[in-house]
Amino acid sequence: MATDGLQHQPTAPGSSPVPVMRRKDKEGASWSIDDIPFDLLERDQVQDDERLFYLLASASFIEITSDLYTDMLVDFFRDDDEVVDWLEGSWKKEEMQHGAALKRYVQMAWPDFDWEVVYREFLAAYSQLCTVDQLAASRSLEMASRCVVETGTASFYRMLSEQSREPVLRRLAAEISADEVRHYKHFYRYFRRFQAVEQPGRAAVLRTLWSRTIAIDTQDAFCAFKPLYLYRHPGASFHSRDYAAYRDDVRRMVKSYFPHEMATKMLLKPLQLNAFVGRAVVPAMTSAARLLFL
């Protein structure tokens, strides 16, 4: 048990612990980029891991571009001051901090990678996807949709933290995962508030959860992977099978490390099922949880 006021992440064999700072304030991020000891990054643990490069570079692109989606959400909820204030004052800043921290990690782990050049190619395509058509039909359903996204990110970063042998990544991923869990709780609370007024049927909520789960893979991840692949393979043509091969590789990691139970519970929560019904639908929702990063 740590006695220095810090929490320490479990370490993989042969790795040193990197402390995780926790302050009492649970309403906002308990860390900053300056808290992450990037100078301790063990490049030899990650520099030849192409799968990890794609995962982290993709995540850095998507997270650092959170302002685009935030602006849409702010407009969608513009009549609700509490939601708008939290989106602009907390969520947007913390998501972009995730992106900035991941960017720094990628640049230090793979110093030959031109992050800025490839990001511009990603942004040109990704910005076309951030349209109001992505938003749900009502405020309560949009909050349910956001719960899916936060489930995926919280689970993804927890997986990275638990499987990584590189101590700085283990620390950084743990910090981001904790933020995403807290974000989920905010979106879920707002979902319940709007649900009380709009009263969407459980079938509508389920359809929203499922459609958003599918959209995570078909849009964001693919959009980030393509320019990264072309950068890593100059002169090559890009084919759908290239992305499929990458996803197959990720599946092998997911099979061993993805926190399926955690993701399933988070996905089920907006449905507010009783215990009996919950047990009946757990297998289907577990399959949905697997789709978050498969």
Structure characterization notes:
The protein is mainly alpha-helical. It has a single domain, classed as Ribonucleotide Reductase, subunit A (Orthogonal Bundle), CATH 1.10.620. It is 68% helix and 1% strand. The protein has helices at 50-64, 66-76, 81-109, 115-126, 139-163, 167-198, 202-232, 240-257, 260-268, 275-291; strands spanning 7-8, 19-20. It has a two-stranded antiparallel ribbon. The chain is globular and about 55 Å long. The two termini are 35 Å apart.
Nutshell version of this structure?
With 294 residues, the protein is mainly alpha-helical. Helices cover 68% and strands 1% of the residues. The chain is globular, with a radius of gyration of 19 Å.
